[in-house]
Every structure is written in C-alpha cells, then in structure tokens.
C-alpha cells in the first residue's frame, strides 16, 4: 500500500447550542471549511478525487448528501464527487479512514475528509423523530431485552460508570479538568492553527474566532450541585456529559509524492486504523477494544504513543477507557475534550484529528491515537505519526 499523509486539518470554532453559529445553514458552514482548506493550502480543487463527509442526522438541512451540496455551494468544481457517511459519533473519523484508505489503495491521489453537525438547526435524533416508524425492530429489542424502542447512550454511560465503580465525584473531577485544560489551551493559542474564523451572517463585523462552550468559571462545587440530567439515572449530569453544539471540520489527505510536487509539507502519516463492534446496550466501551486492536495491529504499545484523543461523550467513557488501557493522564485529551469544547456529532472525528495533529506538533511528540465511541455499540481508532 502507498504511504498516505495529512497535509492540513482545520475546523470552525465550536458554537454553543443556539449560539453564534446557529444562524448558519449546515451546508454553508461546511462550504466555508472546504474553501478555507483549498485556499490556505493553495491547491487546485479540481485535483481532489473525492469528498467524504461524516454527518449523523442526515435529515432536513443536512439531508441529500451534504458533502456534495456543500462543495457545490462553495463554488468548487462540479467534477469532484462527494458522499456522506454515518458511523454515528465517529462519522468523520470514519470519513478519514475511507479517504486515507482510498489513497493507500491507489484509487485516490488526494481526498478531503470532513464532518458537520449544526445541532441547533437539526436536533440530535431528528432522523428518528421526523422519520416514519422506529429503526429498531421488535426482534432486536427482544435480543437485548430492551424495555424501550431504542438504545440509549445516557443509560449506557451510566451502566459503564457502575461497571467500573466510578463515583459522581470522579466523573465531575474529570469534567472540571477538561474545562481547565480547554481554557488554558484557548488562552495560550493552542487552537489557533486549527481554527478557521467564521463570519456570522446579518451582523456587521461579527466574526467568531474561538470556541464558545468552555466554562471558564466552573468549579467542583458547581458541578456537584447539578441534578442528574436524565430521568431514572443517578450519576450523569449536564456537567459530566458532552455538550450539544455546532461545527464543521475537514482534513486534507494525499500521497507524500503529490504533496511534495505541490510544494506542501506533509505534517503526519497514517499508521493504522481499527473499527470494532461491542455490546449495543452499554455501547460506549468500544474505544477500549478499538485501542487494543490498533496497537496490536501497529506493533506499538501504550508507552509508544505520545498523545491520546479519546472523545468525551461522557466522563465515564474516558475514565473506563483509562482504567483498561492504563495511559497516563498527562497524555490524554491534553487540550480538553467534548465535555468542555462540545461534541458536534458528525464533525467531531475530524475535529479531534485537527486537535491531535496540532498538539503533537506543539509538544514534539511522534505518535498520536484518536478514538471515538459510537451509538449502537461501535468505535473506531486512528493512529498517526507526526512528520
């Protein structure tokens, strides 16, 4: 297989729920990221062989292949195809896999993997609420003895907390660390290289340049005062769960030979990939298996990895992962994660790659591993090497 590299990875600032980005159509938000990626790397967009975009709720404004609609909305060449994928929360990380694997196989020379979710305009679960019927059949409910017509991630996260004997205090302490790390990263410019400012329509000279979800003034006392956010559960609150938000992100992928021919410096190469399925009831334990699988496949150990990005869907997910993988905390989500920054579903995978890449460069680390839990009992992981 051919060597395949990342030459750039960018994202919008992450907008809070009904915040600054909520007035922007998802297609327009993603189109802006495509144009920024093309412009800042000085590439001829007609050279892109394919656009692969992750998006979870593909309905309403995010329906009908948002990858293609955003590319054309951006005024980019009609000759470039695009497709949209759904692997739940890891959709755009899966888009990275498909794009990189296409280059490795020789089908593509250059591809863009991206992701988008404007949850203020297309609510989480909109495909279930707006579509006819229920996507889980009675036989599937019988197999897993469900007393509800769907699998619930909050229930899964609570079950994980109990399975690993995680206390409310541990969940809240981890969440506070996420906010503090994200605050420090924002204040010291750690996100500046990956963030592309977004102009807010209808407002003169209003440009969003920084993430909106970080709670700089939160404390353990404030978190402890929060009541459980989900009916029937005890441990999960708005403070130790990821935030609903809006964002788009993208990664430019190609062969190193093409990058050199275009005068672009490759920033990282792909080492390995994994994707796994696990129990769909607890559903969020997949990153444990995905990490173990990718390390075995690559021949590397936990000690070889300089930085980890483990998506903070819920605090219990990352705490359980750490207990099993035994990675040191000073290597995990060093600039905060989705609890502080937000989890814009389809955009999270490529957002995490952008954050991981810049953190590797900032800290001079060699290997970085990203992994995401996904609805339905899925997870994927990506291993990159800084160049």
Describe the model.
The protein is of the alpha+beta class. The chain contains 13 helices and 12 strands. The strands form 2 sheets. Strands 1, 2, 3, 4, 5, 8, 9, 10, 11 and 12 form a 10-stranded mixed β-sheet that branches. A hairpin with a 7-residue loop joins strand 6 and strand 7. The two termini are 19 Å apart. The model has no long low-confidence stretch (mean pLDDT 95).
Q: Figure out the total of helices.
A: 13
Number of strands: 12
> What coarse outline follows from CA principal-axis ratios?
globular
Report the radius of gyration as a whole number of Å: 20 Å
Helix content: 25-40%
Strand content bin? 15-25%
Which quaternary structure do these chains form? single chain
Summary keywords:
387 residues; two-stranded antiparallel ribbon
């Amino acid at each position: 297989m051919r060597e395949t590299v990342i030459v750039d990875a960018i994202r919008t600032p992450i907008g809070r729920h009904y915040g600054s980005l909520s007035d922007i159509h998802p297609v327009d938000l993603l189109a802006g990221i495509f144009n920024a990626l093309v412009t800042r790397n000085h590439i001829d967009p007609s050279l892109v062989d394919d656009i692969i975009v992750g998006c979870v709720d593909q309905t309403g404004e995010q329906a009908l292949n948002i990858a293609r609609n955003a590319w054309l909305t951006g005024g980019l060449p009609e000759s470039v195809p695009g497709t949209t994928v759904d692997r739940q929360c890891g959709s755009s990380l899966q888009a990275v896999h498909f794009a990189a694997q296409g280059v490795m196989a020789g089908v593509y020379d250059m591809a863009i993997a991206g992701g988008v979710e404007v949850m203020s305009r297309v609510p989480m679960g909109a495909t279930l609420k707006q579509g006819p019927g229920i996507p889980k059949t009675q036989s599937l409910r019988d197999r897993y003895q469900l007393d509800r017509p769907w699998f619930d991630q909050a229930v899964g996260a609570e079950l994980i907390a109990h399975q690993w004997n995680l206390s409310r205090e541990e969940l809240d302490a981890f969440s506070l660390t996420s906010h503090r790390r994200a605050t420090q990263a924002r204040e010291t410019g750690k996100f500046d290289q990956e963030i592309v400012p977004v102009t807010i329509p209808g407002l003169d000279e209003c440009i969003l340049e920084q993430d909106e979800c970080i709670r700089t003034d939160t404390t353990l006392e404030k978190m402890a005062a929060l009541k459980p956010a989900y009916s029937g559960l005890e441990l999960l609150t708005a403070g130790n769960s990821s935030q609903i938000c809006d964002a788009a992100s993208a990664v430019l992928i190609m062969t190193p030979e093409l990058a050199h021919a275009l005068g672009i410096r490759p920033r990282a190469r792909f080492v390995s990939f994994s994707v796994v399925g696990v129990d769909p009831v607890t559903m969020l334990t997949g990153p444990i298996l995905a990490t173990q699988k990718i390390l075995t496949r690559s021949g590397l150990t936990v000690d070889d990895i300089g930085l980890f990005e483990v998506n903070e869907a819920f605090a219990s997910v990352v705490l359980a992962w750490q207990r099993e993988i035994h990675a040191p905390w000073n290597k995990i989500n060093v600039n905060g994660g989705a609890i502080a920054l937000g989890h814009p579903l389809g955009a999270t995978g490529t957002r995490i790659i952008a954050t991981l890449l810049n953190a590797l460069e900032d800290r001079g680390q060699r290997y970085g591993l990203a992994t995401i839990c996904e609805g339905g009992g899925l997870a994927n992981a990506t291993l990159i090497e800084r160049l």
